[in-house]
Amino acid sequence: MKILTKGQYFGNQNSEASFNGVLLSQYTYTGIKTDWHYHENPYFMYVLSGNMKDCNTRLKTLCPSGSLMFNNWQEPHYGSKHSDNASGFHLEFEKNWLKKNKIPLSLLEGSQLIENPRLHFLFAKLYREFLLSDNYSEVSVEVLLLQICETLSNLNKTNTQNNPAWVDGLKELLHYDTAVLSLEYLSNELKVHPVHISRVASKYLSISLGEYIRQHKIKKAIPLLWDASKSLTEITYQVGFSDQSHFNRVFKSYFNMTPSAYRKSLKNF
């Protein structure tokens, strides 16, 4: 089976940048299906456009635009493309970087689709810094990388808690359900009293339920902002905000810029 060494991926490389043991790259995916292979280093694939599928011996994962997929360095897999065009942004950690920053390899075990909105925000910021690539990018990238690892560590601690069965159902509803997510709706779906959900949800989500829902709406908005054919008004309603001013305020609270400014900043590259 083929092993892909540092910086090797299937497809055409558009750009690449190295930061002291961490490699960032952007690729256009060209083939319909890759061969089975595994990677020398652990890496993340942030799907920028199109529809991909990542397949390993345990599961097959659909990865539409905006998906964040982690691939473990020890796990064989293959990828397939399910749209005419597809592209992705990669973050690859060399093991020496992890060791230097006292980050255990166990933090990056088990290939998986990452749903946590906080990690998506960090990757969106990392991708913007990768495109910007100015005199301040190196320190900005280093800070974002450490924040990514810290968030992963906190997420792993939360996931290893002895959670009640309804918590997985709650996360699934928050990630995939397109309904208006009221406490009454969640209570009816989960068969759990709304007061109990509101009281303990923050324990299992690490933030309040309302904040998690707002973060998830912004997470869904990010790949839509990459699509120039979609207006800001269309995006506002598609992700579940009642008006554009509310969307602007919430987006700015996480990115320190409006959705319009974020979109324009990407158009410059």
From TrEMBL:
Organism source for this protein? Flagellimonas hymeniacidonis
**Domain HTH araC/xylS-type per the UniProt entry, residue ranges:** 168-265
**Which segments cross the bilayer?**
none
UniProt keyword annotation of Transmembrane present: no
The major lineage groups are: Bacteria, Pseudomonadati, Bacteroidota, Flavobacteriia, Flavobacteriales
- Organism superkingdom: Bacteria
User: What's the name of the protein?
Assistant: Helix-turn-helix transcriptional regulator
- Check the record and name the Gene3D superfamilies matching this protein: Homeodomain-like (1.10.10.60)
InterPro entries to which the protein is assigned, alphabetical: Homeodomain-like_sf, HTH-like, HTH_AraC, HTH_AraC-typ_CS, Tscrpt_reg_AraC-type_HTH
Q: Name one GO molecular function term.
A: sequence-specific DNA binding
**Keyword annotations of the record:** DNA-binding, Transcription, Transcription regulation
